[in-house]
Design brief:
- The protein has 467 residues and is α/β, with parallel strands linked by helices.
- Helix content is 61%, strand content 7%.
- Strands 3-2-1-4-5-6 form a 6-stranded parallel β-sheet.
- The protein is elongated, with a radius of gyration of 25 Å.
């Protein structure tokens, strides 16, 4: 008995140390300079928490624990090492869903354990176990749908008649089943019905959300997963889960609010407006005006200030290294170069920052939307590579556009705009971009990496007197 008590005290002390490492790790992730160390710190905290859990189990179900760790760690470690940066948003969405599913599974285990033992836990424990299971289930299936949309395995937006009413009824039924578990009976059948309804609501809630809202949805489900983990940690009495879950939940909630603000839309509008599915807006007059690499390089050679706006197309082309090489050539030629990042550029929060950091772009050259927008008026050439909806001036001028009111990067204010794009298609939201038809815009139709390479070659020729 004394040995068991000693192990429990040691485990609680280990959980406290793990929680401190989680918090310090996330704090360090706030800066690209310390982010890598922050990830390592948080990882060490997770290892400590895992070992502490091993200790207090005293070998009980050790085979299942090791099997679970092997199934969870080995495939994901291999996948994480091989995943392309273009697939990173899908991986984040899927792994976040697994976190929500784990919290839901813990909730299911606790509820079934209470029911089979015929005991009624404290009301707070039971309520948090049910709430954690609910939002964990929603996060799991919702994240899986988000992954399927991002990976191109299903339509970006899926609607059917009376969808909102059906969603409301399923959610109400899930709440009623949850209330039945809290106030009536922990019968296994009620538990099963509750989870089926919760999982179903996660699917139904995410189906109609369009592609343009995926960054907000991913951060929202990240917050859900964190809260679910915290609630289930309270139900199990594990301090490390409570602290880690609350930190992730708070960070995810704050990030979701920032993302929604960046789109100038409330969270309710993101979840229930079916935005991002395509179409809408006034017809755009005029035509897109092409430019070849040689003429584009001449514009860059004559420019004094260049602002580069990356988007998901840069990730698809894996052009970030070539774009940085182009930037270095411009800087060497005496040009002022900056990178402009919209908060919802790409397919997940921070997507473009990660790509640029991978290519070695110094952090002080990267500016966010609020800081860089006034500078477009003094910019000689703006290069847009793969960005679409976040630079569309229709968000300011066309009240009938689905993105009207969304803050954008004011690329159209630059003296000249070069858009690097593979073709004439619309962006992920399916909306035609008025920037591409502007008088000061020229379209360089090419793969992002090929276009950057051609611009580098042409610049060298100009500097060497080849033109």
């Amino acid at each position: 008995m004394e040995m068991h008590s000693a192990l429990e005290y040691l485990a609680k002390a280990s959980y406290l140390l793990a929680a401190i490492l989680f918090i310090l790790g996330i704090k360090r992730m706030a800066s690209p300079v310390t982010a890598r160390r922050g990830i390592v710190q948080a990882g060490i905290g997770m290892v400590i928490a895992t070992l502490a859990t091993f200790a207090i189990t005293r070998g009980h179900n050790i085979g299942w624990i090791i099997a679970g760790l092997a199934i969870g760690v080995v495939p994901t470690w291999l996948w994480g090492r091989k995943v392309a940066m273009t697939d990173m948003p899908q991986m984040v969405a899927l792994f976040n869903g697994m976190g929500g599913g784990s919290a839901a599974a813990i909730g299911a285990g606790e509820l079934l354990k209470f029911g089979q033992a015929g005991v009624t836990p404290p009301m707070a424990v039971l309520v948090l176990a049910v709430v954690g299971a609910l939002i964990g289930s929603v996060s799991m299936t919702g994240s899986i749908i988000a992954w399927a949309k991002l990976d191109g395995r299903m339509d970006r937006r899926f609607t059917f008649p009376a969808q909102k009413l059906v969603n409301l009824l399923v959610f109400a039924a899930a709440l009623l089943a949850g209330l039945a578990l809290v106030f009536w009976d922990l019968h296994p059948l009620t538990v099963v019905v509750f989870f089926l309804l919760a999982l179903g609501f996660g699917i139904l809630m995410t189906l109609p959300i369009g592609g343009a809202d995926m960054p907000v949805v991913i951060s929202l489900y990240n917050a859900f997963t964190g809260l679910a983990v915290a609630f289930e940690g309270y139900a199990m009495g594990i301090e490390a889960l409570i602290v880690a879950g609350m930190v992730v939940g708070a960070a995810g909630t704050f990030l979701t609010q920032l993302m929604a603000k960046a789109m100038n839309r409330p969270i309710s509008n993101v979840l229930f407006s079916n935005f991002g599915g395509g179409g809408g807006g006034e017809a755009i007059e005029g035509a897109q005006k092409p430019i070849d690499a040689a003429d584009a390089a001449s514009l860059l050679y004559m420019a004094e200030k260049v602002i580069i706006v990356p988007g998901y197309g840069m990730a698809v082309a894996q052009a970030q290294h070539k774009i940085w090489e182009l930037s270095q050539a411009l800087i060497k030629a005496g040009k002022e170069v900056k990178f402009a990042i919209h908060p919802v550029a790409g397919r997940m929060p921070g997507h473009m920052n990660v790509l640029l950091a991978e290519a070695g772009v110094p952090y002080d050259l990267i500016a966010d939307m609020d800081d860089i927008n006034p500078e477009f008026r003094t910019c000689d050439v703006a290069i847009v590579i793969g960005a679409n909806d976040v630079v569309n001036p229709a968000a300011k001028t066309d009240r009938s556009s689905p993105i009207f009111g969304m803050p954008i990067l004011d690329v159209v204010d630059a003296r000249q705009v070069i858009v690097i794009k593979r073709g004439k298609g619309t962006g992920f939201a399916g909306i035609e971009n008025a920037l591409f038809y502007a008088d000061n815009t020229r379209m360089l139709y090419a793969d992002g990496k090929e276009a950057a390479n051609s611009l580098i070659t042409e610049l060298k020729m100009i500097e060497g007197g080849g033109h």
